[in-house]
Records
---
Amino acid sequence: MVVTRIAPSPTGDPHVGTAYQALFNYVFAKQNGGKFIVRIEDTDRTRYNPTSERRILEMLEWIGLSPDESPVKGGPNAPYVQSQRLSIYQEHALRLLESGAAYRAFDTPEELAAAREEARKAGLQQQGYNRRYRDYPREEAERRAAAGEPHVIRLKVPLEGKTVVHDLLRGPVEFDNAQLDDKVLLKADGYPTYHLAAMVDDHLMGVTHVIRAEEWLTSTPFHVLLIRAFGWEEPVWCHTPLLRNPDKSKLSKRKMDTSVDSYRAQGILPEALLNYLGTMAWSMPDGREIFTVADMIEHFDLRRISLGGPVFDLAKLKWMNGKYIREVLSLGELVARLEPFLEAAGYAHPSRAYLEQVVEAMRARFETLGEFVEKAVYFFREDYPVQEKAKAKLEEGRPFLPELRDLLASLPDFLPETTEPALKGFAEAKGLKAAAVMQPLRAALTGSLETPGMFDLLMILGKDRVLERLGKALG
RNA sequence: GGCCCCAUCGACUAGCGGUUAGGUCACCGCCCUUUCAAGGCGGCGGCAGGGGUUCGAAUCCCCUUGGGGUCACCA
């Protein structure tokens, strides 16, 4: 059975890169009737963020990539949090120690830093650990360890030869073992490094396909060596391109908004975000750009992932979100998505029917749910802001607006069939262009010059409010 | 800098030896129009460069250039 996983580190906000990786891993697993696991890699206590794990897990539920096994869901491979699996890694490290594939190293962090600095000054091409303890007497090492001396356990990487990583997308990638160094497997605090923990867990959890970001490619030979040291079978390696900032560097929160929570707060729809991520380095075989995760599962092909690093383009994300708002979601669904935003903004509405009318009228005019809140204030409050340009327009209308108000007051109803001929007739009678009448009226009624069509506006606002607002504006 | 990966319009991509190099976003113009959008139509714009291979290269190979990643007791 196909088993995939993502292994996020709980160090901060749920990252779009995590969502991106989750998407490919999820889709590939589902396509093959396999399972998708989420494992929390919290082995770095210095970067640990206590709310991060919960938020990452919630983020996955929000975008609809629900894992088959996870810390909250549990599963046959529990626990799914690495800090709760420490003894497992320690046992495995010991095993490697016994077989001679690893060794204890007693360098202090200061010594390592000094050695690195020295190597840098000497202009050495070769970087990495100097292997000071690689051939240290075994008995001596054990004695010092038994005495409680702090130390790490490192993998004994072959000094010669090549290690080939067979990447699904790239084919064989060769690394000279001489270029590798003896990476730390178990830190002095007893926690494993990513290298040990990830490979042990992937093996124990039956992960068959490691689909992860390209930044891992250069440490894969090390993983291959580690797996061989244990005598296990390698998974299929598939390194996907990194999402990029507009300047092409690796997507980072310094240069871009990388927080899924932030996009959610702005009113980006989960299905739009997922759809957009699905177009990053991948495309539907038929070229369609709007598709669901289900569509993706049906047509996905890991081998069709392209290797150029895609720039995460907010403009296109927003366009796609707008596409979902105006064409994909049903009106009812859209209204439901909008409700939490309205509540947060303190917007009241008399009825569901009213809300639906407003949303329908506004639909083509906002691309995020947050934008709706900004652009539709005047449908929900009487203290809506009045823009400067609107004020000017209002002045232009002052000569005829009182008369127009009387005309509107005399109408039997505010249906478009009634208001349209009335307003157009009014303009004509005054020898004015329709716009010359509509714009000042629009300004008076909404404080804005950018609104839905006048006749929809009049109908939705209703006679009472229209007359009231007009009176107030002319006041 | 060493090592590794990558390279089609500004951005996302289709292309997998023979295409007028297609689509989407953005941008520009026109249409629609009471404003702003949306929508429709049209336009601008690309195979990084140089060598090969081949009857024929965006497609295959090499070099150069460019971009990215990685070189932690972080993941």
Note: The radius of gyration of chain A is 31 Å.
---
Amino acid sequence: MDLLSQLNAQQQKAVTISDGPVLVLAGPGSGKTRVLTHRAAWLVQERGVPPWHIMAVTFTNKAAREMQGRLEQILGPSRARSMTLGTFHAICARILRREADAIGIPRDYVIFDAEDQVRLVKQALQDLNLDEKRYPSRSVLNAISRAKNELITPQAYQASSYYGEIVKRVYERYQALLEANSGLDFDDLLMVTAQLFGQHPEVLARYQERYQHILVDEFQDTNMAQYVLLRQLSGKYHNLFCVADEDQMIYAWRGADYRNIRRLREDHPNLVTILLEQNYRSTQTILDAANAVIRHNPDRTEKRLFTRRGRGPAIVIHEAYDQNDEAAFVVETVTRLMARDGVQPGDCAVMYRTNAQSRAFEDAFVRAAIPYKLVGATRFYARAEIKDLIAFLRLIHNPADGVSMSRVINVPPRGLGQKTVELVEDTARRQGISVYEALRKLAHAPQLGTRAQRALGAFLELLEGWIAVREQIGVAELMDRVLQDTRYADYIRDGTEEGEERWANILELRNVAASYADLTLTEFLADVALVSDVDGLIGEVNAVTLLTLHSAKGLEFPVVFITGLEEGLLPHSRSLESPEQMAEERRLMYVGLTRAKDRLFLTYTFRRSQYNGDLSVPSRFLADIPGELVSGSHRRRVIERSRSAGLWIK
DNA sequence: TGATCGCGCCTTTTT
DNA sequence: GGCGCGATCA
């Protein structure tokens, strides 16, 4: 069968294994995702499983789209599309939309993204008269998010310290605010779905029948809530097929729990474990370097990774003077590889630990006129102008959405200040009505100055006009109406370059809406909240990829640059405190190294002009890479520099 | 009300 | 070194 002919014996075994719980433990580049995809296809093609009984969970939307594409090639579009594919969040969002009534959430709930969450926490802190300086919203939000990932409700939250007591109070208030705005945050999508299944066995039973086969990619990065969801859904048929690599667990900070692998074993005594050890991606040189780095982590199952790809070129370690010199080296190298070795820009990736490092590379690539694309960073959907327009749409969709209302009530400025906005919100709260109703009352109330009243009235009129047509016209047309009625272009195109860029972003969002013309407003808003990168929506271009090590997970490139290999940056200074965090940094480095197929360049600077301007110390990870894998005399220099800085060398 | 200035802050990673 | 926030002024 040609479905299996491209796979090796181990992979075939995994794909064709009989029903029941399965864990595939595999190293990087071993075809994990491919095994998962083929398993899904095999179930349909050979076992006659109806595709709608299969659910495949991926880590990112992009991975889901790629898997969809491959399945369409194998099974044909219609069968592939009747499978359920996506991230946990996307799948849960759909389930909740359908089962809203059972769990008592509004059917038209909106998803609150990270920025909305921070706003809401700030509001909660203010409501409780807590000082934001002492209780930074970000850190409180982190604690709340962690609790939700563990399925702990505000009521069940156990405060073990004074700070914990504060968190508990803010959490309670925050949750009330979310509810008042008919919002669910990212973590709620998982938590509420788990609650739904826990409280309504009859609903769960329906989904257990629906999803008789569940496949999970990147299982090592699931959190407690996700694990519980998997246990609930697979509770009847136990056809759970998980693919994992412990060495690539890089999301502990966001609640990913390595113990889930152990839990899986404990919960399923009949779990079949399969190891995939052959690597199809990288040269032996790259694999050896990666192994040398990851070896230092304690408590891991040693894997014997091997490849048939041969040694390949040596790794290049380069010391640059500062970050601009580092970027220049990268650009020069890319240029040289393009000229001499026929490398395409799209073959190359530049990776770094923090998004802030991307700027120097962007500048350098712009100057060299080499196309590049930036993954993440100021994410498209997090840009102010995009959030403005989406807030308008959300408000039209659900006029009770107070967060969106307060975002755009005075955008562009129409003479409504803080005081008037507060009055609207207070009225809503005191009378127990929505902000929209409060707005309607106040727009004709005499207690306001004429100026504020007229501004409120004008805004209300606009809003009502849009609401009146929201069912009749498409999302793109609705956007046009909003942009036109608010004269948004005049507001944003201030003659500066940034202004033009912002306007271009607006137009791009409009194009996205136009290209999904069949989506209703509700569907569009649901999708938008769950999409993180617009690159996925615009399609592939032949450009150098600039991305963080985290977002490199699951990708591969012929040429990889890992930059900023300095103590304090990679490993990051925030991870120096605990061995667990240091181990995670090491895994992050491992993920980066193993993205490379052929060529690997590792760079660090002599001095990174940062806040303190000190000389930098080369990363300890560099010193782990055996000298014979590296070309030139760089390695000796690294070790000397590390030694003179007093760093312990193994 | 809104714009501007200056201060002080921190500085990871993302569905 | 940049950004967000708050205070201050028009």
Note: Residues 533-539, 646-650 of chain A have pLDDT under 50 and may be disordered.
---
Amino acid sequence: MVDAPRNTRQRRAVVAILEDLDGFASAQEIHDILKRRGESVGLSTVYRSLQVLADAAEVDALRNDDGEVLYRQCSAGHHHHLVCRSCGRTVEIEGPSVERWADKIADENGFRDVAHTLEIFGTCSSCPA
Amino acid sequence: MVDAPRNTRQRRAVVAILEDLDGFASAQEIHDILKRRGESVGLSTVYRSLQVLADAAEVDALRNDDGEVLYRQCSAGHHHHLVCRSCGRTVEIEGPSVERWADKIADENGFRDVAHTLEIFGTCSSCPA
DNA sequence: CACGATTTGACAACGGTTGTCATGACGATT
DNA sequence: AATCGTCATGACAACCGTTGTCAAATCGTG
């Protein structure tokens, strides 16, 4: 049995930000937002909190084109994302047929321990060109 | 009209490596292979050559879980990859129905300038667990 | 061959992320 | 409420892949 993480002010603050945001954000963005709100939390702590949350599958993580990792509080279960490149606004999407297709392709080629990444990026209707 | 790039020993060497490899490899791996073959090429030059090739769509680039960019000489046209996490061996795959599905999802949600990433990772049959 | 423009390569700088470690906070137990 | 072991925090340095810098070397055209 693993000990539950401690309920610290900092961890609560990070979780609160994630609950407020509806799109993906980087660790540094979250750190900036916290600073602006006057609830300053060390950058290392923000990174660590997000890692813990991601490991516990309480947040989703993905990498943007620049190699930054973005985090978002998502609903449980396997799903993918339609993400606005400009503002981060995100729509969760599901594609059962895609899942089956990916598994079948991998199986046909003798690959095991299969995982896949699938994200759709675009510009959302409220963002300028 | 843009000037054609110069035909230097270094660029030829990088292209030759890409032709030999059948899987994805990082810039640093390619740099190491060149050094081992005695055709030493500066690391900056390897990075620049790969950038140029990727911009010209002569090689595909993708990011692994660690955030490293991997390169591979691929066939022309839009396709995805089934990649061995262990050895990099790669199978090019196509999924016309997935393409249509992704475009439809984006359109339904009012997103434009849409692109998607889709890669399947696994362990291939010739690699140990 | 000579010359100008491009490319190279050693090195420094950059940016996101992770490690370090002394200090501080949590919370179970008295 | 006070004590205490343990875990979390945060300032900072280190890391690692990648990109920028710039003098020297190379390409290929005239």
Note: Residues 57 and 77 of chain B are 9 Å apart (CA to CA).
